Amino acid sequence: MSVLARSVGNAFRNKIRTAAVVAVLAVAIGLALAMLVANQAVGAKVQELNASVGTTLTVNPAGGQGFEGGGEPLTTAEAETAASVANVTSVVGTKALRLQTATAGTTDSATGTTQQGPGGGFGPGGQQATVTTNLTAAVDAGTLGNRNGSAGTTGTTGTQPVRALPITATGIGAEVDSTGKALDITSGTGLGDYTAAEAKTLVGTSLAEKNSLTVGSTFTIQDKTFTVAGIFDAGTTFGNNAVYVTLPEAQTLAETPDELSSMIVTVNSMENVDSTKTAVQDALGTDKADVTQGQRNLETAVSSLDSVKNISMVAFIAALATAGIIILLIMVMLVRERRREIGVLKAIGARNRTIGLQFVLESLVLVALGSVVGAVIASLASGGIASALISSNSTTTAATTTQRGGGLAGAMPNGAVPGGGLPGGGLPGGQGGPFGGASQLLTSVTASVSPGVLAAGIAAVFAVAIIGALVPALLTARIRPIEVLRGE
Amino acid sequence: MIVVKDLVRQFKSGDRTIKPVNGVSFELEKGSLASIVGKSGSGKSTLLSLLGALDKPTSGDVVVDGVSLAGLPDGKLTEYRRRDIGFVFQQFNLIPNLSAVDNVMLPMEFAGVRKAARLQRAKELLEQVQLDPEKHSRRTNRLSGGEQQRVAIARALANEPKLILADEPTGNLDEQTGEHIIELLSSLSRDHNTTILVVTHDRSLAKKTERCFRLQQGRLTEEVRTESRR
After folding, report:
1. Residue B83: its chain A contacts at CB < 8 A?
2. Which domain holds residue B73?
3. Which of A4, A339, A345, A488 to mutate to test the interface with B (most CBs of B within 10 A)?
4. How many domains does the structure of chain B reveal?
């Protein structure tokens, strides 16, 4: 019988105790593995978020963003200036348009109200142009912000107009959305040459469905016929109520051939983002452009995810240490219990290292059993634990973001802002304003037990178990063989 | 040949110094069967532990075939126990969750004997001590006292030691089984030319050995025999 076989046999000497030890170890190991899985999942998400928007800068006209604000529009010359800044790998210009359904304008005219601000279809500063289309928006106006007077109308007289939301159209200089993220084209193709004016469009899935558009279908913008080259999925209802055309085409439609609504500047590495942001800002001038880094909600989301990552790592280490301590205590108990047997083994010629190895292997047998059960526990519980960690941690974030987002949404009901005609969720991030996406980012973390993470976790558990078992194993060396004669 | 020279082992107990072994000297020829008798607490087991290198003497020396144990490092003492000594204990001290054959194989495993060779020798030894072959694979905690002591003797013989030290080998056995064990040790001494030293307080057992020593207050005296056992 080898040392290993003897160790395995010893591990099962007292089956009830072994079962109890394995159960306790399984809980500790399962918790450790679940925490590691959560940590890896959150880490991957943070990496993904950083990778997706981490090297992107957004340049807006100073004092303006999207369809709101004022200031002077950006120009293609400024895009060239930005492109010449060190570490900038690309600059993509965008031109935002609002497509107003022709019938909605008629309705509004009939009721004698204006849906447009004092700018006559242009916001303060004229960052956007409103053009007509024969498309119908895929998003109903609803009652958000009391835009249709559905709430608090008691006592009012007259009929409130039923508002139709405009459709966002964006001219783009490359196959990316207005935040710089690659477009997910689900059918058809892209627009080909994004630097040429061409009557081709990419249409969001919900807008295509609402207007029964497929690849090759046509519709009109400003009485000009456009062909659907592809259909994209932005992942949100608001994002899919949109149309993309080439940048020159959008500039032509807006009759502002040299103007840009925003620029998406890509930096060559994350390390250079901060310095490049400053350099671009300096190159364009603070009175001309506002330079921001990525999505504004990303910082909040990543910060929360980082907290979850740290908590899960601390919990992983704590659970590992617990498993190590359990092994240490169990093995110390076994060594004390078997002093006489250890004395016998020494009396008949066993070396200290042989006996020490036997105890280490015995502890590893217990850990192996605990790891098997723990892995099952982790695979069942890691998703729930990760969700619980994230939801508890995002409560504070969500409260903050809801407060902020709600404030913005409340301040910007559709058509309530003079000259704005601001659609709900008109800012990047959808409902709740720019910070509303943080919660979505947090809850979109998927914790799945991958073999690699499991193997790494179990390797760590075994390493800790060996350390935990070494102490009692070394204790066996201190037991003198004369112990065997005690009590004789 | 085993030579014990002025062996002393003393302990501190509070302010007192106890000397269970106090200047013991004797010699044992190879293949002899000897006994040490004495009352409980007379230092018999302490002397045995010194001879078997389970404990270190305060002074004096044990020389086995010309090799002095005094000053040997722990590793060498372990090697001495593994190679030259076989222990038989009153409480048998078998590993309870191992079978009889596994218990006998243990010293050979520690000595690096290959598995097939140690299995064969373990079975031979168990047959030699007349353990029923059906019980070779049985866990030792399921064997009777006499059977366990036979397994313990087989284990003591596993590495063909020069000296077998038996501490009250019949102390936990009935008279008839004790007789069988003594006969077994006696025949092993003859057949294997192994030196056997039995520690006992049983004078009837001691009478069956070739030489008998009395340990009293740490000092050893040899009783004179008028007839040979063999």
Report:
1. 349
2. 2-223
3. A488
4. 1
- Six token digits for residue A77: 């010359």
Q: Are A378 and A449 in contact (CB under 8 A)?
A: yes
A152 has a chain B CB within 8 A of its CB: no
Q: Best-predicted range by mean pLDDT among A224-238, A305-319, A468-482?
A: A224-238
Q: Tell me the pairing of strands A56-61 and A218-221.
A: unpaired
Q: Is B116 exposed, middle or buried (0-12, 13-18, 19+ CB in 10 A)?
A: exposed
Give the Å distances, CA to CA, from A269 to A69, A283, A313, A429.
31, 19, 27, 24
B114: which 2 tokens?
């290959």
- pLDDT at residue number B74: 87
Whether A181 and A52 have beta carbons less than 8 Å apart is answered as yes
Over residues A215-270, the pLDDT tens digits come to 999 999 988 999 999 999 988 888 888 999 999 999 998 888 888 988 988 888 77
Q: Where are the domains of chain A?
A: 3-50+302-485, 56-152+159-293
A110 band by pLDDT with thresholds 50, 70 and 90? very low
Q: Which of A217, A174, A171 is nearest to A192 (CA)?
A: A174
B94 domain residue, yes or no: yes
Q: Which of B52, B89, B107 sits opposite A488 (nearest CB)?
A: B89
The amino acid that residue A394 corresponds to is S
CATH label of the domain that carries residue B6: 3.40.50.300
